[in-house]
Amino acid sequence: MSDSLHRRRFEWRQARVAGLIIVGLLLLAYGVYRIGKVFDVFASRYELVMLLPSALGLREGAPVALAGQQIGQVEEIGFIPVRLKTGGNNLFVRIALSEDVRDQIREDSRAVLRTQGLLGDKFVNIEPGSAGAAILEQGDTLEAGQSVDLEEFMTRAAVALDTANAIVADLRDLTHGIEHGEGTIGQLVTDEKLYNRMVRATGQLETMLVGINNGEGALGRLIRDPTLYTRLVSTAARVDSLSAMIVARDGTIGRLLGSDSLYNHILGGVSRADSAITRLDGFVGRATAGDGTLQRLMTDPALYEEFLKAVVDLQSLVRAIREDPSRIGPRITIDVFD
Fold first, then answer.
1. Domain range spanning residue 160?
2. Is residue 127 domain-resident?
3. Which of 88, 138, 151, 304 is most deeply packed, by most CB within 10 A?
4. Is the pLDDT assigned to residue 291 strictly greater than 70?
5. What pLDDT was estimated at residue 19?
């Protein structure tokens, strides 16, 4: 009897242990299922390739998202052979994506590296493509967009902060100078005399504008008097009439513009002037060429001096004849009635 009771207790304990193991396995299976559901582990996948110049912070197994929703993971990161490098890319990234979103990823889709939080790990985020682009198939290359690197962003922010500090320092120096009356703005802020002068100048300008608005003075009459407008309209009408007459070839100006005779006369005058210049050039050429008298007179200093002396002597002779004509010869007297 005791052996039978002991055997029953043992069997019950074994049943409880077996039940606990079964429940644990069921819970484990459910947990694995839920985790696979969340991380899309059991979905059918296809692979695409990305080409990147750098994959700093990206690791194998990192999540891949489409418009912020996880659809796969990074399978492999490797170096591109040197002979196959193009466009400055150094690495290839092979990603596995769910077949359920194949029609969302097209040729105009772009993949960029993002950061999970401020200091989190990197992941790949894909922008959905448009309906007009072709769907990417197994093994195709997915274009990578420009990624914002946190380190580069912090460097740029530091440079911008330094620039802002320099600008603030310059503004501090500028305001300090203005406060102490340095420069035109400083004097304008601190000098009451300059302020009073500006107030007076503003008042005078206002008075002048009021007078102009009331039609006072030449400028006021020019703006307010309609007579000037009437005269301008009349002048424009006369100019228009004159232009019409010229176009119609009425009057002297119209005939000058419309007739070919003026052009022919001018052309003839130009031709005659050209002929005269040609003849004058020939005369000058003949005069300056050869050994003629004019050439020697122009080039021989001795002949020029003799010619000048002869002219002086001739002038002296003429002067002497005018003063005393008897010096030229004896006076001749003819007596008709002798």
1. 154-190
2. yes
3. 304
4. no
5. 79
Whether 63 and 113 map to the same domain: the answer is: yes
Percent over 90 (pLDDT), the chain: 12
pLDDT digits (tens, 9 = 90+) for 96-107: 998 888 999 999
Give CA–CA dist 317/62, Å, rounded.
Answer: 128
Locate tokens 């006076």: which residue? Answer: 331
Q: Which of these three, 148, 166, 201, is where a domain ends?
A: 148
pLDDT for the residue 300: 67
Question: 143 with 161, same domain?
Answer: no
**For the chain, what is the domain count?**
3
The reported pTM is: 0.40
Domain boundary among 114, 132, 148: 148
In whole angstroms, give the CA distance from residue 93 to residue 201: 74
Asked if 50 and 140 sit in the same domain, the reply is yes
The pLDDT of 256-280, averaged and rounded, is 75
26 and 60 together in one domain: no
Assess if residue 160 is contained within a domain.
yes
Q: How many residues does the chain have?
A: 338
Q: What is the pLDDT of residue 121?
A: 79
Residue 213 lies in a domain: no
